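User: For a benchmark we're assembling, each entry needs the component sequences followed by a predicted structure for the full assembly. Here are entry 17's components. Please fill in the structure.
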Amino acid sequence: DVVMTQSPLSLPVTLGQPASISCRSSQSLVYSDGNTYLSWFQQRPGQSPRRLIYKVSNRDSGVPDRFTGSGSGTDFTLKISRVEAEDVAVYYCMQGTHWPFTFGPGTKVDIK
Amino acid sequence: EVQLVESGGGLVKPGGSLRLSCAASGFTFANAWMSWVRQAPGKGLEWAGLIKSKPDGGTTDYAAPVKGRFTISRDDSKNTLYLQLNGLKTEDTAVYYCATGALGLWGRGTLVTVSS
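Assistant: Structure for entry 17:
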């Protein structure tokens, strides 16, 4: 199975400051169709997960533009340009290229 | 409104069975690949399995921990997805979410507790 790792696992941030989460895969996530199926999810306390980003850098409808996904191959990043209180959550990366699809362990973002 | 609503969770003894349902609305369910994802208490997310739409073959895939014990099915006439859980183990205790194939839409989840 493809192993997804994230760093850091805990990220205390100051409101209004940027935040960055790294996600790495144990093998390339480029699929045979040329797409890279790497997604990012946000799970606020007590809520279901919500997809933020799909295929590395495509923002889902309604996702604020302060969230940006980037990367290629095996190395990916989720950036929050200016953290707001509502961004307190656990963030997961997930690969959908190789079955079984696998998630990273999650990065907990909270306010300093 | 576009939504997914799971039901059927509960307390079951090890070795027991349960059937979860997921009612879909607001989109063309018959054309959607659907997934089940679970989350053990205080833990991360684990993809349990998926089912393709019938136009795409209607086949299923399962993660190793549930393969042979769990079965995903769908009734497109009822816009409903199912997850049959057999041979349950304590480690299957989790909130079970249904989601559209690429996880763009999630339900609220239903809790399955396996305990004697």
